[in-house]
Design a protein that fits this description.
The structure is a homotrimer. Chain A contains four helices and 40 strands. Helix content of chain A is 16%, strand content 28%. The first copy, chain A, folds into three domains: 5-88, Udp-n-acetylmuramoylalanyl-d-glutamate--2,6- Diaminopimelate Ligase, Chain: A, domain 1; 101-313, Hexapeptide repeat proteins (UDP N-Acetylglucosamine Acyltransferase, domain 1, 3 Solenoid), CATH 2.160.10.10; 321-349. By secondary structure, chain A is of the alpha/beta class. The interface between A and B is large, with 67 and 65 residues.
């Protein structure tokens, strides 16, 4: 984190072409709209090009083929987004360090196995039989239940709960308030409609390089395993029910819900607020657009939309027809009048027809 | 938890009929798709019958009247699901025990009343005037606010917050990250659109045998009581606003939201991602299908669907018509042509009519 | 909190007109439906007027122009809701006090700056470089990350996580299990569909007088700032993605989700379970009704509804047409018959026409 850089230095660093004063001092980064004099910003999404006219930034990273005008310095680069990322590391504070060691306020069971260079932060609880792999960080106030197994280089944020027997691979990130291994929602019902809990004796397993968002809930399996594949990315406030299986590299955007025992294929993308009913198979590579509600199996590769979710083109066609319903209604009314007129004329011609 | 059992032993234990080798060694349990040689699995849902052909399991529990074939041993039983549950307890680790006692790291107010055989786990906080009934378990990092009253045999998971004055019956289970008694969302608005908080002075009361899922939020009443009935089961990530009343034995599946002051009847089932607007009455025994959005009172016993939610048959009929809209549009176009033709012929016949 | 009041005293206190026995003893408050003899309740929403006939309350606060009958005492007042609020403070326990001081079990970094009269409750964690303004309350088990800055008179409930570099204004309230500053959901994707995390180096800033509900998640910006304006009220279980900007005095009702980089104007109201796609601008004063899904920019002042959200009148018209689809279908069928009849008659008249 440096305090200032010159525009020329920045252009050199990102391999860009500067149009403007090389000695211009840049002291910070910001978005196009929020930038103040002295800031550098970037324009990656052409949607925002109009904002260039009004930005107060002193310099803007733009695409190599950008041919617009601006009142500030421009640095043309191949990938403005990536270049901005590179520049930004100079102007943002680095993330905190969590040095190895067990904080004296942490409660770690005697028989827990803590790997090398692990950070167990303040007020963490690590229960009996848990094993934590090398270099893993429990930031603080984390709960690791009995006989959990965490791999190497995990990063577990405050107020995460990992219930008993949970298994995490390597390089897994879990965000705050997430719950791994809560009981599945399973009951038997008697003839009076009173429910009795079915024991949920399985666990949750999460693959290498997966990331689980804040306040995500992943239920343990009734038996066996609720399984999250390698490289799966789950955004905040998603719900994953018991015995769900999520294939490698799938993506769940925020507020998605997946009901019990459904199987989500590899590289599936479920966009925000989508839902999947229980006991379904969603094939590899399926994309469900935002708010889709999947109620039956989806073949691999399909793009679906709407509720109940249907192939995108079909759903879009139906949706367009719905929007034009007022016009259709109008047309039917016109046809009705034309028919009435025809009927009247035929009536006339009929009645006037010579006997 | 034993290591292995013989197929004959298992059949005897569940009162089933074995077709296969009685000496076959079974060492684990799994789902049909996930089972490995040596595992026993079960087929309860006929939907999965086709998977029997490819399962690698060594034995499968099937229904008494199952007449399909399989390459592995079959055990015919009355209720394969229940039988599997029985067998599975031999092969899954038992849940952890939480022996009575107050962990030295727990912070318990001097005047809190802690019942017999209560477990107060590490880093729990129990505030002044709280009372905790016998045999209740606070696993760890639980917050119990001032003057809360918890009954007997409750089970409160890590990172649960029970705010001041909360009242829980007996045998209540609350899952991690749930919040009981957060402030209701109530403001007065001035003529500039600036909101002032209305004090939320009531509390939450939860009946015997209720279960509250992970990251569920239940707001305290403005005055009086947000009331969750006996035997109510609430799945993860549901939201229950201030002054809501939920009748005994109702079921809320994941991600359901209920707005302020609505009254949900006894034995109501609200399926996943459903919503209920404020100040409504949802009658006893109502079933709202997944994603339903209830915007007006629903009479007892009705099954509703869609948004705005309507009686299921009506909603299904409308939905079917929507799906057939492209065809209706086509038909209207055809009619238009036939009318134009009729008009043309009448025109001809009119003009050609002898004067 | 007193034990009883007389009806006459209450009427005097709220400046109302009593119809009934001034010596009547009132010992509690409750809703119309839940009230027991001895309770006072209120009728503000005319929708509930019918319940007056069956309430068991001893007295009811009603509007000055109320002309119905009741079996109990009535107190006519200008604003029954406000009057009830006034009365209720006599009958509800006051909220707990959180006196200044740092609980010995709290872990506060040496270089953290704790203002005057701050309450740091049991098992809180305050990391290095954090600053907490005067009179702020951290109830207990709160996490305040490195170099966070909290203003004066904040109130932070149990199990809140405020990640590093978070900035809170004055009088901010954050409810339990909320997460401020979790990583934004940003990845680069390679040609095999494998995602690599893009560092999320920005932070979250929350304005004065904002309130954040239970289990709300607000992601830190990729760079710069996810910004929540002054006086913004966010209900439980909402999701706010990275780089979102929410204007002053906006309101987000429960379970709303806002995708990355969208800008929500001042005084916007997003009702329950609404969603906003990414990179959109929602103008000042927009109202999105419950469950709306906003997929494109919305001009200031518009009221929108449905998914994809459309101006309310247009959406309502389309919706009404959809509900009448079965009738439209029926009408088209009738027209078809009339056309067939016309065709038949023309055919007849044609064939019978003299050559």
């Amino acid at each position: 984190m440096t305090t200032t850089m010159r525009a020329g230095e920045i252009a050199a660093q990102v391999g860009g072409q500067l149009a403007g004063d090389a000695d211009l001092e840049i002291g910070g980064i910001a978005g196009l709209r929020e930038a103040q004099p002295g800031d550098i910003t970037f324009l990656a999404n052409p949607k925002y090009a109009a904002w260039l006219a009004t930005t107060r930034a002193s310099a803007v990273l733009v695409a190599a083929d950008f041919d617009g005008e601006a009142a500030c310095a421009l640095i043309r680069v191949k990938d403005p987004d990536a270049a901005f990322g590179q520049v930004a590391t100079h102007f943002t504070p680095p993330p905190p360090a969590y040095p190895p060691g067990i904080h004296p306020s942490a409660i770690v069971a005697e028989d827990a196995e803590i790997g090398e260079e692990v950070h167990v932060g303040p007020c963490c609880v690590v229960q009996a039989g848990a094993r934590i792999g090398p270099r893993t960080v429990l930031v603080g106030q984390v709960y690791v239940g009995h006989r959990c197994t965490l791999g190497a280089d995990n990063f577990i944020h405050p107020h995460v709960t990992i219930r008993e027997h949970g298994v995490l691979g390597d390089r897994v990130i879990i965000h705050s308030s997430a719950v791994i291994g809560s009981d599945g929602f399973g009951y038997s019902v008697d003839d009076k409609g009173v429910r009795t809990k079915i024991p949920q004796r399985g666990h949750v397993a999460i693959g290498d390089d997966a990331e689980v968002g804040a306040a995500v809930t992943i239920d343990r399996a009734r038996f066996g395993c609720t399984r999250i594949g390698r490289g799966v990315k789950i955004d905040n406030l998603c719900q994953i029910a018991h015995n769900v299986v999520i294939g490698d590299h799938a993506v769940l955007v925020s507020q998605v819900g997946i009901s019990g025992s459904s199987v989500i294929g590899r590289h599936v993308v479920l966009a925000g607020q989508a839902g999947v009913a229980g006991h379904l198979v969603v094939g590899d590579g399926v994309i469900a657009e935002g708010r889709s509600g999947i109620t039956k199996d989806v073949p691999a590769g399909q793009v679906v939309y709407g509720f109940p979710a249907a192939p995108r083109e079909q759903a879009a066609r139906v949706h367009a027809h719905v929007q034009r319903l007022p016009r259709l209604k109008e047309k039917v009314r016109t046809l009705e009048q034309r028919i009435a007129e025809l009927e009247a004329r035929l009536q006339d011609s009929g009645s006037s027809a010579p006997g």
